User: What shape does this take?
Amino acid sequence: MGYLKDERPTTIGVEGGWNLGAYHYKGSRLLEEYVAGLKHKKLTGSFCPGCARVIVPPRNLCGRCHRKMDGRKTVSDRGTITCFVVSPPIYKGKLKVLGMDPVEIGLVKDGQVVIPVFVKFDGSDSNTDTVLLNADPKDVHIGMRVKVVWAKELQGSLADVEGVEPI
Amino acid sequence: MKRRNVAVIGCGQTKHSSRRRDVNVAEMVSEAVYNALEDAQVSAREVDAFVVGNMPGFGGVAQPEQWIAESLGAAGKPVLRIATGGTTGGSVGQGGYYVVASGLHDMVVAVAWEKHSDSKEAGATTGLLHVGLGNFFHAAGYGLSLKNLVATSVVGAAAGVAVYQAMFYMHRSGCGIEHFDMVAAKARRNAAKNKYAHLQWPGCTAEDIAKTDIVTYPFRYGHICPASDGASAIVVAEESLARKKAKQPAWFKGLASYTDEENQLQSENFGGVGVTDPSEQRGCWLSAVKAYRMAGIVDPKTEIDVAEIYQPFPSQELFFAERLGLFDEGTAWMALETGETEIEGRMPLDPSGGVNATNAIGSSAMQRILECALQIMGKAEEHQVPKKVRNALAHGWGGVTNYSTVTVLGDTPGR
Amino acid sequence: MRRRVAIVGYAQSHHQHNMQKTREDMVFEVCKGALRHAGISREDLDTVITASTDFLDGRTISSVFVGMAAGAFLKDESKVEEDGTFALYYALMRVLAGTHDIALVEAHTQGSTMNAHQVSCFTLDPQFDRQIGVLNDIAAAALQARMYMNSHGVTDEHLAMVAVKNLSNAAANPWAHRKMAKVSVEEVLGSKVLCDPVRELMMSPVSDGACAVIIASEEKAREITSKPVWIEGVGSCQEAYIRDRDLGRLESLKTAARTAYKMAGIKEPAADLDVVELSEKFAHEELMAYESLGLCREGEGKRLIEKGTTGKEGKIPVNPSGGALGADPVCATGLVRVIEAAKQIRGEAEGCQVPKVRRALAHGQFGMCAQKNMVFVLGGNGS
Ligand SMILES: [Zn+2]
Assistant: This one.
C-alpha cells in the first residue's frame, strides 16, 4: 500500500540487545489488600477523603487532591459496561502472548472471540478492565448490566475474577 | 510582564519511510537539522543552543544526543533533552520556544526523531511494552490470569487504547466506521502531496480503505498509522533575528501542555484510574484554552485557519478537533462528510497527511508544529492550503493518553 | 536575566541503598515536602517539570505514572530526560519567559531498579564502543582520571583525599547515603579497585533518592518567603562524545561556569563564592572541576585539596554536604546540590553549615566523563 522506500544496500545491520530481565522494580503492597478481599468475593477500592472518589483496584495517590487515598470501601460486584471491544476470532498461529500461542496452550479455543470490557462497578468511580463472558458478541452494548464471574475456587489472587457476565 | 516575541524561521525534515537503512541515527538526525538550517539560511555556528528528544526505548540508545553531538553541530553548546512519549516532538518544539523566550538564548534548533527500524522487533517489544512492564510483572505476582492477558494483547497488539477511545467517541457522537475510512483516505491522499510523508496514496478513497480487513472493531488495517523512521527540526529565533532571516516567520502565539490523570494502563503498581472516558481529554481541552488565551484567539472556529492534529488513528482527528474547539461537540464527522476538513475546505485538518500517514513517534508531534510553520510561511508546496493562513494550530498527544501539547502559530507575533 | 527568580522551597529524601519505598511514594513525599517547606499548595503551581530517564526507571515514558505524585494533575507539565539541574534550567526558562510564575521541579532515580553503570553502556556509540564492550562509565572515568593525573602530577593519594573530605562531610549530613566520619586515606586506597585508579570509595554510591525544588518569580517569591534564594546565574554546555573530545579536561564545565559567572557578575570565583556544591561522580572530577570553575589555575587542583582550602573550614568549602560521593541518586544528584547550596545560603544546612554564606555555586552533570554540565550561581538577599 502506498509508497515504500527501497532498501539501500549502503549500510549493514548491527545487532544489540536490551536485557529485559535486568530491572528490579519496587511494588506497593496495595494489591495484597485487593486480592485478600477477592478471596471473600469482595471488591476493595481506595477511597479519597479529599474528593470522595472510590477507585478499583485500590490506588495509592489521588492526583486531584495530591494526597494519599488512605480510605477503603467495598464496592458491589455488579456494574455497568462503559466500553467494550470485540476481537476478531483468534486462530492458531495468529497471536502471541509472552511468546506463546494462546490457542496452543489452551487459553482460548480456536476461532474464539474475546470481548475485553470496561466495567464501572456500582459504588466506584473508575473503570475496571476485564473480559465479558457468557454473552453473544451481538448483544454487547455500552450501558449493559453485568456481574462478576467468580472462580470456582477462590485463592486470593487476581485470577479469582474470571470476568463479568450479563445479569 | 511582556513576553519576548519568538518565531520559527526554518524547517527541516527527512524523508519518512519504514526503514531508513541508508543512514544511522546520527546521519538521519543531522539531515533534518541541516535541512532546517539551510531553510533558515543560518549556519550551525549561529545557533546558540539545542533542544532534542526522542523515545529512547525504540532505538535502544540512552541519551543519544551525547553520542551524536558532533553530527548535530551541538558540541560545545547547551543541549536540553526532553522526552515525554508521544508528545516528545511537541514538548521539544515548545522547549525551543521557552529557551528563546527566556532571553537566555537568541537562536536554537529543536530537533526530534525516531528510528523505529533500529528496534529488531516491531517497536512494541522494547518500547511500548516497557510503559507498563513494571505494572504487569507486579500484577503477575498477584496471579493476573493469562486469559486477561490475551484480552489485553488482542486490543493492545493492534491499536491499544485507541480502540476504546474510538468506541467511546462513536457512542457519544454517533459517528460510524465509514467516517474513519474517510479520515484515513484523506490522510493518505494528502500525504501523496507531501514529499516527506510515509504512506502516500494519490486519489485514495474511503472505498479503498473500506476494502481492508478489520483488525479490531472499529479499526481496519487501512486505518492504522505506519511505524516510520524520520526526524524533523525547526530553527527558533527571537524577533530581530527572525525578521532579518525570514520573509515570513511563523510566530509562536500560544502554547501549553497540560497533563491529566493517567488512564487505561492502570496507575503505578496496577492501581485503578479515575478517568472513565479516555476520549474526554481534559488535558487537551485545557491546553487549548490556555494557548488560545495567550494568542488572543476568542473563536477558534473562525480564527484558526488550519490545524495539524495528532491522529495515529482516524477517530482521534475527529474528537481532538472537537476538544480543540474547532468544531462543536460531536459534529466533527459531519464537517468531514461535507469536505470542510479537506485541504481546500473551510477548516483543513492535517493537510500534510498527519500522523496517520507518517509516524516516527518522537518526531510526530514536532512535525505538527513544523507543518503549521510551513503553512504560515507559505512553503508547504503541494499541500499548501489555498487561503491566507493567519493562525495555525499544532497538536500533540501521548503518554498513557494523558499528555497533550497545543501550540498556536501565527503570521504576526502579537495578539 | 529578564526577571529575578528565586528558590522558595525544597525537600529531599533520605538517599539510601534499596529504599523501602515505591518510586511513586518517594516522589510524592519530596514534592509534598517541598510544597510544605514553601508553605504553598499544589493549586499555586503553574508548571511542573520532572527529571528521570526511561532507561534508569525501566519504563518507557517514565514520567507518566509519577505525574500525579509530583502534583502535575491538570498542570502545564514536561519532562527533562537527564539530571535534575536541567529540569531546573527548563523551569527557570518557563518563569523567565513570563508565561509561568511558580514552578515545581522534581528529579528522581532508584538506582536499585537497574544498575546505573549498566545503563551507562547504553549511552555508548552502538556501532562501535558498545560492540567492543570495553567501556562503561567506570572504565571511561578511569581513563579520564589517568589522563588528568599524568598531565598534572596528581597521585592516587590526592584522589583519596577528596574522597576522605567528602565522605567525612557526608557523615554530618542527615540525608546522605555513604557516611564515613573516620575514613582515612589508607582506607580509601585500600578499598576495592574497580578500574585503576578508580577505587570503590572514590566513586559515588548508587542510591535511591528524589528531591524537589520550587522556584518563583520575584513578586511571588517575596510573597511566599522572607528568605528567597535568588538564581543569579546559570550556564550549561555539552561537549562532544567521549572519543571526540579531550578527556583530560572538563571544557564544557568551563564554558558553563563562564556563562553563569558573567550573568552573576562574578569576576574572581575563588573570592566571590562562599561555598561550592559539586556533582563529582568520581573523586578526580572534583579536582578537575576546581580548575574548570576557576577556583585555581590549571593543574593546581591538587594544591587545594592538599592545603585543605576546600575543606569545611577552608577558604572555599567544596561539598560540605558530602557531594555526589556522599549520595548519588543519579538524576536527582545535581538538584540535591542546588538544595544543599540553597540551604547554606538560608542557614538551614545543620551539621554541614558553613559560616557566612552569601553566594553559592551548585553543579550538575550528566553523561560519561561529565559530558554535559550545568552551573547555577545562587545568592541570598544580601548578595
Ligand atoms: Zn481526591
About this structure: Residues 6-120+228-237 of chain B form a domain with the Peroxisomal Thiolase; Chain A, domain 1 fold (CATH 3.40.47.10). The longest helix of chain B spans residues 124-140. The first strand of chain B starts at residue 6 and ends at 13. Residues 270 and 343 of chain B are 44 Å apart (CA to CA).
